[in-house]
């Protein structure tokens, strides 16, 4: 009786001995050993599709370069090229099974890519998986390469591709806040400094500020993306280029630029580039900046929507789910909260990257797997966090206009707009009176005979209160004690 397909195996051999590999697996013995050795994260590298595509692009570019300079048979190079293209198109990603956290400076990831692409190529040639006498994962697919130039280059290519989708989502979020700024352009509110009442502004200005800060982060990420464009292909083991044809570096760069669409360049010092991972640290730091600023915005959204009865209650966030198993009707700001947690994770990942960069020794940094995992996870979580914040929160925010109007009307902060006309001392005395009596500030100014109702109304218009229309008149000298009806006790 024939064995079930799931139990059939093929035998593969390396320098340590032989292992039985599932017959249907495109990966081989080196990947199998990694699966045994690194059951750490239980997350395969395939969770980061752009890392897998980056690996395939490097293998494809290398095959084309090796064919061009004559160090790899054209038939073999073409098979590797075709196989890598299938991976780039999104096929066979489930075969990239080694864990994201692994020892060996990424060797297991490189071997996994070599084996999968080789076995795909063997099938394209009508051969059986594991027929390495015809096409070898190491001698052919890995020709002119080392993990030490393939892996960091694939990470940089993958991160650059992943960043493109993050930037798209970041810009969509910026535009969502900008749309709300337009919608709320005429809504006056009380601004706050140190959580205390300050001066008036519009809710539109507040949301425009959110949009502006996200736009600034878009620029910073764009600038730092170029840190990832310097690669070390052709460096092989430590940067000396041992086993590599002198023309390989220039050839593989040209092909990889064409395949990836990225403006890549070769490092001028391959020894330094192979051991230095500072670019990852700088890029991770920029991601952290974006995450922390986004978290601050989410803090503001939670504060502005707090209540709805006993808090600020200025805006309403869309109700997404029941907020309590004991308090009926409670709804929590779950979307901003989850984005806060993403930011915390990104900050932690940045520290991990920093320590891993510092941990490099001599001619190689062995900790690039955790660097790659940390940054890819940060980009992935940030992109998803931005998406849910935009779709499930920002787009549906509404404003409590009556509540804001009442708060502005009773706020002593509005008197700041009148100080150019009545003087600081008089304004301070009236502010104190308003706080003690709860009277409307505008009414107190008119009753004190300091300004006419018409002038007060004009100066306290939304445009002037928010600074959109600035008009300053001469300041008369009015002492606090000269105000009629002063009952402040001054």
From TrEMBL:
<dbReference type="GO" id="GO:0006099">
    <property type="term" value="P:tricarboxylic acid cycle"/>
</dbReference>
<dbReference type="InterPro" id="IPR020557">
    <property type="entry name" value="Fumarate_lyase_CS"/>
</dbReference>
<keyword id="KW-0456">Lyase</keyword>
<feature type="domain" description="Fumarase C C-terminal">
    <location>
        <begin position="415"/>
        <end position="465"/>
    </location>
</feature>
<protein>
    <submittedName>
        <fullName>Aspartate ammonia-lyase</fullName>
    </submittedName>
</protein>
<dbReference type="GO" id="GO:0006531">
    <property type="term" value="P:aspartate metabolic process"/>
</dbReference>
<dbReference type="GO" id="GO:0008797">
    <property type="term" value="F:aspartate ammonia-lyase activity"/>
</dbReference>
<feature type="domain" description="Fumarate lyase N-terminal">
    <location>
        <begin position="18"/>
        <end position="348"/>
    </location>
</feature>
<dbReference type="GO" id="GO:0005829">
    <property type="term" value="C:cytosol"/>
</dbReference>
<dbReference type="InterPro" id="IPR018951">
    <property type="entry name" value="Fumarase_C_C"/>
</dbReference>
<dbReference type="InterPro" id="IPR051546">
    <property type="entry name" value="Aspartate_Ammonia-Lyase"/>
</dbReference>
<dbReference type="InterPro" id="IPR000362">
    <property type="entry name" value="Fumarate_lyase_fam"/>
</dbReference>
<dbReference type="InterPro" id="IPR022761">
    <property type="entry name" value="Fumarate_lyase_N"/>
</dbReference>
<dbReference type="InterPro" id="IPR024083">
    <property type="entry name" value="Fumarase/histidase_N"/>
</dbReference>
<dbReference type="Pfam" id="PF00206">
    <property type="entry name" value="Lyase_1"/>
</dbReference>
<dbReference type="InterPro" id="IPR008948">
    <property type="entry name" value="L-Aspartase-like"/>
</dbReference>
<dbReference type="Pfam" id="PF10415">
    <property type="entry name" value="FumaraseC_C"/>
</dbReference>
């Amino acid at each position: 009786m024939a064995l079930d397909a799931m139990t059939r195996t093929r035998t593969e051999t390396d320098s340590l001995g032989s292992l039985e590999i599932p017959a249907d697996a495109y990966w081989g013995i080196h990947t199998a050993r990694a699966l045994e050795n690194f059951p750490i994260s239980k997350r395969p590298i395939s969770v980061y599709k752009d890392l897998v595509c980056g690996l395939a692009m490097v293998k494809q570019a290398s095959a084309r370069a090796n064919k061009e300079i004559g160090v790899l048979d054209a038939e073999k190079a073409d098979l590797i090229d075709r196989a890598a293209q299938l991976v780039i198109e999104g096929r066979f990603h489930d075969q990239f099974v080694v864990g994201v956290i692994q020892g060996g400076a990424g060797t297991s990831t490189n071997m996994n890519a070599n084996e999968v692409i080789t076995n795909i190529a063997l099938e394209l040639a009508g051969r059986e998986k594991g027929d390495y006498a015809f096409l070898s994962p190491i001698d052919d697919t890995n020709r002119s390469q080392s993990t030490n130039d393939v892996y960091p280059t694939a990470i940089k290519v993958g991160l650059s591709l992943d960043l493109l989708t993050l930037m798209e989502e970041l810009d969509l979020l910026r535009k969502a806040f900008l749309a709300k700024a337009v919608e709320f352009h005429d809504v006056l509110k009380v601004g706050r400094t140190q959580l205390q009442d300050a001066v008036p502004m519009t809710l539109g200005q507040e949301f425009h500020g959110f949009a502006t800060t996200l736009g600034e982060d878009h620029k910073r990420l764009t600038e730092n993306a170029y840190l990832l464009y310097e690669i070390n292909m052709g460096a092989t083991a430590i940067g000396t280029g041992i086993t590599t044809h002198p023309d390989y570096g220039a050839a593989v760069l040209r092909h990889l630029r064409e395949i990836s669409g990225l403006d890549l360049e070769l490092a001028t010092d391959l020894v330094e580039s192979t051991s230095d991972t500072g670019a990852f640290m700088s890029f991770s730091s920029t991601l952290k900046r974006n995450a922390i600023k986004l978290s601050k915005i989410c803090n503001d959204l939670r504060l502005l929507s707090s209540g709805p009865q006993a808090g600020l209650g200025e805006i309403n966030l869309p109700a997404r789910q029941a907020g309590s198993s004991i308090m009926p009707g409670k709804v929590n700001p779950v979307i901003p909260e989850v984005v806060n947690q993403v930011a915390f994770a990104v900050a932690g990942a940045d520290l991990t990257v920093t320590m891993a960069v510092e941990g490099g020794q001599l001619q190689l940094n062995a900790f690039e797997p955790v660097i790659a995992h940390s940054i890819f996870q940060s980009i992935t979580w940030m992109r998803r966090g931005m998406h849910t914040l935009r779709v499930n929160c920002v787009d549906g925010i509404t404003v409590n206009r009556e509540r804001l109007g009442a708060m502005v009307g009773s706020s002593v902060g509005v008197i700041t707009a009148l100080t150019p006309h009545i003087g600081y001392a008089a304004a301070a005395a009236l502010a104190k009176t308003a706080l003690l009596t709860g009277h409307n500030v505008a009414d107190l100014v008119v009753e004190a005979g300091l300004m006419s109702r018409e002038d007060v109304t004009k100066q306290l218009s939304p445009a002037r209160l928010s600074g959109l229309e600035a008009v300053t008149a001469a300041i008369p000298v009015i002492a606090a004690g000269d105000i009629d009806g002063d009952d402040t006790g001054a």
